[in-house]
Task: structure prediction
Amino acid sequence: MNTSENKSEQDDFEIFFDVGQIEEQIALANENDSTCYSYVKLGKLYAKAQRYDEAIEYYNQAIQMNPTEKGFHYYRGVAYFQMGESMKAMEDFMIALERDPWNKWDILNFTGTIKLRNGDIPGALNDIEQVLHRNKGLLNDLRISMDEYDILMNYKRLNG
Result:
């Protein structure tokens, strides 16, 4: 077995182990004063296991308990994005960006991708160019494919 197969099995084991700890985490969440943070932790565990519906349920609970917390909408937005719920993801990303731009570049990467895939090429170009400027032109940090990037660059070339 090669090293990448070993790493993949290790990652699978870690996900299984983490999700196996969920009942314990729920018990901790119920006795902890900062339960909203425990719910986010549980959401992250479910998201890591690609169980996004369940992750969103925990993020919803955290947001309900502390609706002004900066990062909660970001995490839920990522889960919605992974599920293909682009409009719900966009709503959460806009709230996250407004409340705390600590993760502005990653959020713009997501929003640019969503805008492009929903036909808003000018909006996507604006977001993606900001990400590229911040990342000094590194294309490998983008969430869009090279074909999608070519669409943006052709649009820019034609519409200047």
Observations:
- Confidence is low (pLDDT under 50) at residues 1-13.
- The chain is about 80% helix and 0% strand.
- The chain has two domains: 1-92, 100-160.
- Residues 12 and 49 are 9 Å apart (CA to CA).
